[in-house]
Amino acid sequence: QVQLVESGGGLVQSGGSLRLSCAASGSIGRVIRMGWYRQPPGKQRELVAYIGSGGSAVYSDSVTEGRFTISRDSAKNTVYLQMSSLKPEDTAVYYCTVRTGWFTTTDYWGQGTQVSVSS
Question: What mean pLDDT is predicted for residues 15-27?
Answer without folding.
Answer: 96
